[in-house]
Design a protein that fits this description.
disordered N terminus; disordered C terminus
């Protein structure tokens, strides 16, 4: 399941529209050509005059509303009219009604700063979702006791902030099997699961969750006034950049985040430049019985590295369950696997022992690359480390088997699709 699959099941705020309740009455019938039609009675003439006055009044109201900075939107508490939502409503999760408002749809769904220091609020962030709702995150002060409940936000916070500003990390960062930054995480030393009681005991002034976090957790935290930053999308580098920007804005670490992203984008561009000159290798990412097909994060990794994703070319999408017999027809030049940290060699041997795999070229050196699960599935800035790891494996493969692979032709047109349909 991809981040977009998770987002489809997320609760979305209702959409309200700005409606002029005055309305515009229908105009009187247009006179016929030639001599103007005379009214049949004084009452009819009075009605027409009254209707005309209503039309003029409605047009005047609409004109004034269009010129006003906030249109017909009411001003939010503590914010400017131009930043307020249309028809303020109480949050569905039981939080303060000033935290969630609804507006017309916006093209940008990432968190953005809409109000900086001033009054009783240090900063306000806003986000629009695909349904047109607008959510506000109101931060009374710069957070000093931050609790993270996702491994991605763990990794970002450990990169942007000193340990003393992090009150707690997710339990994922306490294990070498799921944490890339175990050494950094140990400096914080406090790891909490999804229990509201555990989190509240740390007295947080900001909690970072994800769309897949328990809805009850978010509701309970907001109900007692704890600001919650929820990350919703994880489908590739663009979403990762947005999430890093959102976390940085919420904790006041924009400068550090800009430098982090500048470096990361420079490294990605270097990979694209190097791989653009190399042959396009036919690759497959396979984990837990699933191929990482079109639209998956690893599909984007392969494309950045200039490789061809055989699962995507077969018309599969997302995490697609496949039978290993497909490898005989797809004939990938390289396969990327994931495993627990420290069990990489055991996973390689297990994979190569499968009967279907033994009938392919994958037993040759360098054709099966095993990556730790923590890096394989990362959706933080460490994604760039994954890209570089994949690019290096592709470069070694080209150096070792490039000439031999060039002599082998791709599967005949339509053969891959036939395998997709016939193999369960």
């Amino acid at each position: 399941m991809t981040g977009s699959d998770l987002c489809r099941n997320a609760e979305r705020p209702a959409v309200e529209t700005c409606v002029d309740r005055a309305g515009v009455p229908p105009l009187a019938a247009t006179p016929t050509r030639g001599r103007r039609e005379r009214p049949r009675s004084g009452s009819t003439l009075a009605c027409r005059r009254r209707d005309l006055r209503r039309v003029h009044l409605a047009l005047l109201v609409a004109f004034i509303a269009a010129l006003a900075p906030g249109g017909c939107r009411p001003a939010q508490r503590g914010g400017s009219a131009s930043e307020a939502g249309v028809g303020e409503r109480k949050a569905e999760d039981g939080g303060d009604e000033s935290r969630v408002v609804a507006t017309a749809p916006a093209a940008q769904h990432a968190w953005r700063i809409v109000e900086s220091a001033g009054g009783d609020v240090w900063r306000t962030l806003a986000r629009h979702d695909a349904a047109g709702g607008r959510e506000l995150l109101v931060l009374p002060r710069r957070p000093q006791r931050i609790v993270s409940q996702t491994v991605a936000s763990d990794e970002v916070l450990l990169e942007l902030l000193p340990a003393e500003r992090i009150a707690g990390l997710s339990t994922y960062s306490a294990s070498a099997g799921t944490s890339i930054d175990l050494a950094k995480a140990s400096r914080v030393g406090r790891f909490v699961g999804g229990s509201a009681e555990e989190i509240l005991a740390l007295k947080p002034d900001l909690v970072i969750t994800a769309v897949y976090s328990a809805p009850e957790l978010t509701r309970r935290l907001r109900a007692v006034g704890v600001p919650v930053l929820q990350l919703r999308a994880f489908d590739g580098w663009g979403d990762i950049e947005d999430n890093i920007g959102a976390i940085a804005a919420a904790v006041g670490a924009e400068t550090a985040a800009e430098e982090l992203l500048r470096s990361a984008n420079g490294r990605l561009e270097a990979v694209r430049s190097r791989r653009a000159r190399a042959p396009a290798v036919r690759a497959l990412a396979y984990t837990y019985g699933n191929a990482q097909a079109a639209g998956s994060t690893f599909d984007e990794v392969l494309r950045i590295c200039g490789a061809r994703n055989v699962a995507a070319e077969a018309g599969l999408e997302g995490w697609a369950a496949i039978d290993l017999e497909r490898l005989i027809v797809w004939d990938p030049e390289i396969v990327f696997l994931s495993s627990e940290t420290g069990r990489e060699e055991a996973e390689r041997e297990r994979f190569l022992s499968q009967p279907a795999v033994r009938r392919t070229r994958l037993g040759e050196p360098g054709r099966v690359v095993v990556i730790s699960g923590a890096l394989f599935g990362t959706v933080s800035h460490r994604y760039v480390d994954l890209v570089e790891r994949v690019a290096a494996a592709l470069a070694r493969l080209s150096a070792t088997h490039g000439a031999d692979d060039a002599e082998r032709s791709d599967p005949a047109p339509g053969k891959t699709e036939t395998a997709s349909e016939s193999t369960p």
